[in-house]
């Protein structure tokens, strides 16, 4: 099975919520030596992102999205231990405070990034979805002795301004210099990250991990 073949087939299986097919494809490509991080980044994430977009557009409904999410979880259960094995020796000890910003309940992509960060040796504090500005600030204040990265996800254009508000509040509280801020999400761009004063932008889960490792 070629790289291109597996990507398309895996994405199709996840979108269809076909757990058996999702597991079968992943098992086969793992045997062929495909990098487990690539499986997540090139197969699982694009599939669930597409489903999220279709859901927002009203082209699929909640049961379809939930079935796709279940297939995603089964796939992640296969690759997560392998990712942990390959990254366990990096010895990173930084704390990453992760959350989807207030007003945005999408948290599958953010959760995948959190998983990969944890597997890479980071101490991940996952605040969940629709996280208020003050909750981000409180999480930073609670970890005064740590080296901290704040990661914020936004999938809606109506909520991305919350990323800017968190950075502004960090500055007001005198906390901005002690943290690195990275942002991501379907509606977020490198230009937006620069505009709001973030330290970096992750286009996908793999890039977010790479960025965090640079900050460490």
TrEMBL record:
Keyword terms, alphabetized: Cobalt, Metal-binding
CDD domains: corrinoid_protein_B12-BD
Domain of life from the UniProt record: Bacteria
PROSITE patterns: B12_BINDING, B12_BINDING_NTER
UniProt domain B12-binding N-terminal: residue ranges: 1-91
Stretches assigned to the B12-binding domain: 93-216
Protein known as: Corrinoid protein
